[in-house]
Specification:
5-stranded antiparallel beta sheet, globular, about 35% helix, 3-stranded antiparallel beta sheet, alpha+beta
């Protein structure tokens, strides 16, 4: 991998001590320009977006979701070990709670009824087609709002608040949310249900190894380089990965392997059959991560 060009972010310091990166400049922490001072969960962005959190994750709880939707989790518990039944319970709960099939009950009339179709399923499917779409902007905006992690890419780099790229992202996010029925509240439940299912299925595990095919690691924000093929990167606030290394090989000449905390999985293929098709796709919340880079 020595022929692979890279440049650390400004101020980063790298040492070759056989153990990896020097931490003297605190590059294990989430940079200030990549986070908000407030969010809507139980940990601040500077903590949940840090390298320490990647290594030692703890539960992420969205404000008020468990309290407002306790009846959903009561029903899920009654469904027991039947995976299909739990999925049906979740879908039915959101359909009724947000009146997804009866837009007129929520005040939609005339031409505005079309916006009621912009529900959580359409958002996730839209992301799978193009993560830089309007649906992608809504999902990245939801991560920004709930976890305080700012997006770093949406079609172009997002580095300057108020710049043209940032304004374009904000316009797409606002357009995607306009006239919808509590769309971000629907996403709150998707994330919380995903965490519920991961806790059931992984029996105490804290991480899952995910892969992403890339052509140039220099396209990512590199905070430093460790020993061998290890890098420390700042990921976008929401990114797609796959659990299949073979599948990742189809998307680039190099493979990023990441130990992703289960608490940072927003959605994965198979959580709700029919929503994501193929690619064994996982949608993971970002921050600072150590990755291993390898050839196909």
């Amino acid at each position: 991998m020595e022929n692979f060009s890279w440049q650390p972010s400004e101020g980063a310091r790298v040492c070759d001590n056989g153990r990896g990166l020097c931490r003297g400049d605190d590059k294990a922490s989430l940079p200030r320009e990549a986070r908000l001072p407030i969010n809507r969960c139980n940990l601040p962005a500077v903590v949940l977006g840090s390298l320490t959190y990647q290594r030692h994750p703890s539960p992420l709880l969205l404000d008020g979701v468990a309290e407002l939707h306790h009846d959903l989790f009561r029903r899920l518990a009654l469904a027991g070990d039947d995976d299909e039944r739990r999925g049906d319970v979740f879908r039915d709960y959101l359909t009724v709670r947000f009146q997804l099939e009866w837009p007129e009950e929520m005040g939609y009339t005339g031409r505005r009824k079309g916006r009621a179709k912009a529900n959580y399923v359409r958002l996730i499917r839209g992301w799978s087609f193009d993560s830089d779409s309007r649906e992608g902007a809504v999902l990245k905006g939801w991560v920004e709002s709930r976890f305080g992690l700012l997006p770093r890419w949406h079609g172009t780099p997002l580095r300057e608040a108020g710049g043209d790229s940032w304004q374009r992202y904000l316009e797409m996010r606002a357009s995607g949310l306009y006239g919808t029925n509590a769309l971000e509240a629907q996403l709150d439940l998707v994330y919380t249900y995903c965490q519920y299912e991961l806790a059931r299925r992984h029996n105490g595990a804290r991480h899952v190894t995910l892969y992403r095919g890339v052509n140039r690691v220099a396209d990512y924000e590199i905070l430093g380089r460790g020993a061998g093929d290890r890098y420390t990167l700042l990921l976008n606030n929401l990114s797609s990965f796959t659990c299949s290394r073979e599948r990742a090989c189809e998307f680039g000449d190099y493979i990023l392997a990441v130990e992703v905390p289960l608490t940072k999985i927003f959605f994965y293929c198979g959580l709700l059959p029919g929503v994501l098709q193929g690619e064994d796709e996982f949608l993971a919340i970002g921050g600072v991560v150590d990755v291993t880079l390898s050839t196909r």
